[in-house]
Write a structure and sequence with these properties.
Shape: elongated
Structural class: mainly alpha
Number of strands: 4
Largest sheet: 2 strands, antiparallel
Distance between the termini: 39 Å
Helix content: 55-70%
Length: 165
């Protein structure tokens, strides 16, 4: 019988136990969650800068040259906003964590400019910042609840004395 098992191992590879799969799945979820959170945080920082530029642009004492410079900065922020090599604007993001789907979609805020002016862009940016804030809060709660649900198996094989030798 052991010879047959050796042949199977040779062709199929060594089979991991159930706990190995759980650990791999957990690591994958943590990595996905970290990437999702990181992308949201980078977007939030860019949105705050764009919001600041638009508010500064709308001040009465801002010259035309300063307005053009602020517009160029906002455009550059949108074009250069990326996380781990992925462009973040005009994109949608999804994460499945703790049996719940989290998703976020964002378009280039300057596309709102043509129809709704700078006030529309500012409203869109503010809405997206609020949406990111709520999503980050929901993610934190889901992660906290998911880790509280984890059970730790301290089997009888664990030897505290051997740990300190």
């Amino acid at each position: 019988m052991s010879k047959e098992l050796e042949i199977l191992k040779k062709h199929l590879g060594d089979i991991q136990g159930k706990s190995g799969f759980k650990a791999k799945n957990l690591v994958s979820q943590i990595s996905d969650a970290n990437d999702f959170i990181g992308a949201l945080q980078v977007l939030n920082i860019s949105l705050k800068k764009i919001s600041k530029n638009i508010k500064e642009r709308e001040l009465e004492n801002t010259s035309q040259e300063q307005k053009r410079m602020l517009d160029a900065q906002s455009s550059q922020l949108i074009q250069n906003c990326s996380f781990m090599g992925e462009h973040l604007f005009d994109n949608s993001f999804c994460l499945n964590l703790a049996s719940k789907l989290f998703s976020f979609e964002i378009q280039n805020p300057l596309l709102v400019l043509e129809k709704n002016g700078y006030e529309g862009v500012l409203a869109y940016v503010d809405d997206k910042m609020e949406e990111i804030s709520k999503l980050l809060d929901e993610l934190a709660l889901a992660i906290q609840n998911d880790t509280e649900d984890m059970t730790y198996d301290l089997s009888s094989e664990f030897n505290l004395d051997a740990l300190f030798r």
